[in-house]
Amino acid sequence: MKRWFLMAGLAAVAAGCAEVTPGDYPKGWPAVVGLGPACQGLAGTYKNAGMTNDPRTARNRLSDFILKNNDQGLGAGQDIRFTFGPDDGLTVDALRNDAVVDSVTLLRSERGYSCENDGVKIRKAVTGAVAGYNSASRFLTKGSDGSLIVRDSFSMAGIWILPPMPVVVDATEWARFEAIK
């Protein structure tokens, strides 16, 4: 009996775990046009409720993509407004009936965000129970219809700590949020 459990355990470790989620830009979505110089095109207000390319996900709020653990705070907003301050701050306001219900400011100097490749990259913390390589990025840009397009990417390769087994994940999710005119 011990031998059977040992063999089953070794088979599970050898099999490992792998997930690859296609990261292709969704068909039928507007062309990506970017944010322009210094990413100023991000400034504006967008609906908090949107759509994703992955039907398995429960994340369909812009606030879910901006900060981690948004059960409260930004998630309470009907709309999300982005404004650039006179310093290096990017302020994200959650609005309900045009009133600010929560706000957060990301600072470029503290690596809260960066402007690159005609879009805004928001710092995304990577945590987990894997010893090895982890990479995550969240990139915001615009569609030709004025909507906000989010590309959320996560890659990981290493050893899952409990139970120990090899794991490889490469996932990209796209989300789209309508601009408020």
Features:
4-stranded antiparallel β-sheet; disordered N terminus; 10% helix; 2 helices; 7-stranded mixed β-sheet; single chain; mainly beta; 181 residues
Structural overview:
The protein is 10% helix and 45% strand. With 181 residues, it is mainly beta. Strands 1, 3, 7, 8, 9, 10 and 11 form a 7-stranded mixed sheet that branches. A hairpin with a 2-residue loop joins strand 7 (113-116) and strand 8 (119-122). The longest helix has 14 residues, at 2-15. The radius of gyration is 19 Å and the shape is globular. The relative contact order is 0.24.
SSE order in H/E notation? HEEEHEEEEEEEE
Low-pLDDT windows of residues = 1-14
Rg of Cα set: 19 Å
Strand count, sense and barrel status of the largest sheet are: 7 strands, mixed
Give the helix/strand class: mainly beta
Query: What general form does the structure show?
Result: globular
Distance between the termini: 68 Å
Domain count: 1
What is the number of strand segments? 11
Strand content: 35-45%
What multimeric state do the chains show?
single chain
**What would the average pLDDT be, to the nearest integer?**
78
